Amino acid sequence: MDILKVVNIYSIVTSLVWLLVFICIYLKIGNENKSLIYYIRAVIFFILFLILGLFLKEDRTYIGIVFLDISYILLILSTEVFIPIKKRNVWVYTFIGMVVFIPFTGLSKQVFCYIFNCYIGVLLTFIGFQLLRTKKNHNNLIGSFLILWGIFNVICPVLYEIYEYDLTIYIINRVFFVFSEALFIIAYIYKMIIEYKLDNRNIKNIFNASSVGLELYNSKAELMIINPICLDMFEIENHNTVIGSNLFERFNIADRSLEQLREGRDVSFRVEYNLDKQNNNDNSLRKKKYLEVKINILGTNKLIPDGFLVQIEDISEQIYSSHKLEERLKMAVSSAKLYGWDWYIKTDELYVDPTFAKSLGYDADKFSDKGKTFFDTVEKEDVKNIHKRLTKHLEDIDKVYICEWRIKDAKGQYIWYMGTGSVIERDDDGSPIRMVGINQCIEERKQSEIELYNSEKRYRKLFETMVNGYARLEVTYGNNDNICDYRCIETNSCLSEILQIEEIQGKNMTDIITHEKYWIQLINKMLEKNKSQNTIEQYSRRLGKILQVTMHKFDENQIILIIRDVTTERNLENMVRQTEKLSAIGQLVGGIAHDFNNQLMAIGGAISIIKTKYPNKECSKYINYIEKCSNNSASLINRLLNFSRETEYKLVPIDLHSIINSVVEILERSVDKKIKIETSLNAKNHMILGDESQIQNTILNIGINARDALINGGQLIFRTYNMLDINCDKNKNGNHKPAIVTVVSDTGIGMSKEVKKRLFEPFFTTKDIGKGTGMGLTMSFGVIKSHGGCISVNSVVNVGTDFTIKLPLLDEKEYLPKDEHGKLLKGRGKILIVDDEEIIRELLGEMLEMLGYDVVAFGNGYDALKYYEKNINHIDLVLLDVVMPEVSGKELLAKFYNINNDVKVGFLSGYGKEKMDESVMDKLVGFINKPIDIKELSVKIKEMLDK
């Protein structure tokens, strides 16, 4: 019995050793196998069974031994070290060990020991084979020993019978128990140490191989392992400096995440981490990192964690890229002038992008009052439209809300915006809850639209008011794809006026120009030659107009026609050519007239000298004939000069009846014999003050127009009569000035009201091209008006026309007949004559000497200048011919003024003085037109010397 007690005491001690081993392992490496609670439970049962066995009676001590063996086996099973079993089965095995063998305690000692030893033997053998299957060294040793012990337990009852329950057999059994228990403790400690080292090594290898930062914390949240990625991430040179640091101190974990950890849930969050590279006080060198942190709770019971695994990923590049992308997006949105808004409809909460208010010059919180300020700022007319469009969208009538409106900026100017949006959330009933959208500035687009509208308006106005006809034609093809016609698809009103057709648009060209189909042929030729543009001019027989047509090939099937009425333009060109021709003739006539005047000057001068020196009555008759012919020739030369516009209008007393008679003589030579010309000159007073040639041309022009109106013959009548009051201005009272009225009547074709309205317009004519310039009556109107008169016309189609001319009569008091026997005005002084014609110099010098003047004459201007320089104080007047071969009169005038600024110079010329520049005329003291008689010369010289 002493040996039995020793064995039992040893068992209690080993149980306590077991408990101590478990506690030490737990404190050292933590609850790695997650089964400390089961270890403690197994040891407690083991101790209870021992106490139970010790306090039984001596004859029942074997029952305690039974419970001791069962508790040992349960201890092996509960550790889950050698044979992995489910934790929930530990209590099942324990219950079986307690319950199954309790009923056997009442049996005899022999029977109970037999049953128990067989059960223990089988169980130990089974456990031994399971350990051998793991193929681990420590398991193989323990497994083999347990198999031997199990076999011994099976044969132990037999040995008890053979050896009559010898205590040696029991002691051998207990030795097996003690030895196996010792081996088990040693193997378990060895296994824990090896596995701990292996686990640490594997964990470190896994940590080091990881592509993300990993940190392992124990249950106290103290850092145990940190991998190189984390060291580089936090720029830590020695990992020992952070080992043992607290998890919650390393990361500023938000309260919400802490709450999740307390609830046993894994957490994930982002942190900003600042690193100091050199100097902690140098903020300029600080670098900010963005980290994604995930904390996983380790352990089966996460409310009591065994540790924490922290995964850390550096997402700085993604954040920076995201920031750059956001900046680009903001720039894009800003440049596109897009501003978001979010409207919670039920609560009427409106959020508007603050940059929207800033873009208008307001504070950022301008529109933060549920939209009230927003709608107060929008143009009132547009607010109604916004509400209308919103209502349609909220009622799901419009799928998308789109509305354009104007809003006032801080400067008081209205800016155009377009709002777009849609409902993104509705309740179960379909009622809108939330709506989002954007406001986009469309000011530039609106301005462009306004400019486009104005441009189109201007274009349309220009299109409709342009003086050219416009037509866009569409090609019409026949059966063989040949061009057969052109349809007008767009025209303007001017085209209708030019072609004198009311409706053109939509019609075919063949229907428009039925009698002038050559226009279509011209267009076809342009297309055949593949020209993009062609311009032609054609005379329209139907219209009596010259039309210029410019054709543009618009595209493959369309042509643009620009049609201009160039009739007036071509008439002007013809008139310009005619004017140039007349100008050339005028220059020729002027040159001839100049030479004639020189000859007439000589003839007239000689006659004046003869009549003065030799007043022979017998010869005076013939001398007067010569003088009259000379004067008539001078008058003819003046008419030629007037034709060439080289003389000014000469207002002199003229006999209007005499002019009418001369016009009748001219017309009688040129009219058809079917036309009968009659005169009825009943005016008693027919003297007027005017330019004879201009009045004659005016009456002749009216007579020619009347002749042209008498196509089939008829009467042309000239009538005159006097009236007391000319009264040309109907809006004013008469000026009580007597007048002579000339009426030119014809029985021709007459004229319409439209023609009569435009009769005196420049270049207006009803005659065919080349038969009239349209300027005759215009010039006649101007001549009559310049003479203080007026002209009117009365006409009836197919009856005839009356032209009525009113001219003021010459006042008898103003009309003083020429005293042909008047005295000559003589004087004194020395006159220098410069003329290239010798006969002019001699005759003019002799006439001046007869008038009492001293004369010196030169044919060369330079000789005259030299003489004047030497005798500057003795020359009273210089007479210069205008046209001379070596130096002209104008050039000599300047040279004389260079010598003496007070010199008196007069011009002698066969041309009119209107050809002279005003600057030249201002320097002259007079102008003498060739020819001139001695009486007129005496007056002119006296006037010059008196200036």
From TrEMBL:
The chain crosses the membrane at residues 6-29, 36-56, 62-83, 90-108, 114-132, 144-163, 169-190. Keywords: ATP-binding, Kinase, Membrane, Nucleotide-binding, Phosphoprotein, Transferase, Transmembrane, Transmembrane helix, Two-component regulatory system. It comes from the Bacteria. Its EC number is 2.7.13.3. Gene3D superfamilies: 1.10.287.130, 3.40.50.2300, Histidine kinase-like ATPase, C-terminal domain (3.30.565.10), PAS domain (3.30.450.20). GO terms for molecular function: ATP binding; phosphorelay sensor kinase activity. InterPro entries: CheY-like_superfamily (IPR011006), HATPase_C_sf (IPR036890), HATPase_dom (IPR003594), His_kinase_dom (IPR005467), HisK_dim/P_dom (IPR003661), HisK_dim/P_sf (IPR036097), PAS (IPR000014), PAS-assoc_C (IPR000700). This is Stage 0 sporulation protein A homolog. Residues 830-945 form the Response regulatory domain. It comes from Vallitalea longa. May play the central regulatory role in sporulation. It may be an element of the effector pathway responsible for the activation of sporulation genes in response to nutritional stress. Spo0A may act in concert with spo0H (a sigma factor) to control the expression of some genes that are critical to the sporulation process. SUPFAM superfamilies: ATPase domain of HSP90 chaperone/DNA topoisomerase II/histidine kinase, CheY-like, Homodimeric domain of signal transducing histidine kinase, PYP-like sensor domain (PAS domain). Residues 401-454 form the PAC domain. Residues 591-811 form the Histidine kinase domain. It is an enzyme of class 2 (transferase). The modification 4-aspartylphosphate is found at residue 881. The keyword Hydrolase does not apply. It catalyses: ATP + protein L-histidine = ADP + protein N-phospho-L-histidine.
